[in-house]
Amino acid sequence: MKIAILSRGENLYSTRRLKEACLERGHEVDIIDTLHCYMDITSSRPAVRYHGQELPKYDAVIPRIGASITFYGTAVARQFEMMGTFNVNESVAISRSRDKLRSMQLLSRKGIGMPRTGFASKPDNVKDLIKNVGGAPLVIKLLEGTQGIGVVLADTAKAAESIIEAFMGLKANILVQEFIKEAGGADIRCLVVGGRVVAAMKRQGAEGEFRSNLHRGGSAEVIKLTKAERETAVNAAKVMGLNFCGVDLLRSNNGPMVMEVNSSPGLEGIETATGLDIAGKVIEFIEKTGKTARARSTKTRGQG
């Protein structure tokens, strides 16, 4: 097969591992810098051009689109879909997952467990917004934040009011969320590929840190999932429409709760913690699914 990886850097761990997995299985692979693509948008023959030349026909594309380039990255992914290329994660699904508010609403509609969450632009009563998610302590998140940036724990109602008002003064979009104390500063990252969990790890925040992100000094270890956790991760990926994603869960007294669904999960932390070949699982999925998917084109045909 001829496979393209959309990525900003060929030396990034995840990109490099996906390339290695392609080559190990005898596939041709090109790494394409997403921002250097430009599109020929025509009704009869849509194309993607790169460094002055039209890109060849690919059997599949793997989008590694960072949060900072979501708008342009999804436009490029959509163009490949319009050309009939099998996209591991379609543009519509990536857009859904990147909009934290939209993704929470979609998960809620399907009955997926989540912390109680509030969203407002200019609430007349900040105290009522805080009360409605269970009061302090609570978590306040920037909608556009990544890797734990823009996530604040407010220990008291007064602190929560001050932080919310400060964010609103900056015209920032925020979520106000119930704090799951029993999680103990840990979460579970589940890697879902093709509708099943292929790996899972527990991420524990550094001492005194409630955020468990490895980028913030957290540690990782292999964990055995419960049936409910496995089902929750698979269902969350399905609701988002993602074939390859990371689903972050919290263990709460009310069962597993989804914190986020990541459409471009990093592979380094989970491959290191588990010793598993996750990149290989992604390529195996393409091998099994790509031919059938190409026959019927992509689910959305680039629409939406």
Tags for this entry?
alpha+beta, 5-stranded antiparallel sheet, 34% helix, 27% strand
Give a nutshell description of this structure.
The chain is of the alpha+beta class. It has helices spanning 13-24, 70-82, 91-98, 100-109, 126-132, 157-169, 227-240, 268-274, 278-295, and strands at 2-6, 28-32, 37-40, 47-50, 53-54, 60-63, 86-87, 117-119, 138-142, 151-154, 174-178, 186-193, 196-204, 219-222, 244-252, 255-262.
Explain how this protein is built.
The chain has helices at residues 13-24, 70-82, 91-98, 100-109, 126-132, 157-169, 227-240, 268-274, 278-295; strands spanning 2-6, 28-32, 37-40, 47-50, 53-54, 60-63, 86-87, 117-119, 138-142, 151-154, 174-178, 186-193, 196-204, 219-222, 244-252, 255-262. The chain has 304 residues and is of the alpha+beta class. The two termini are 28 Å apart. The relative contact order is 0.15.
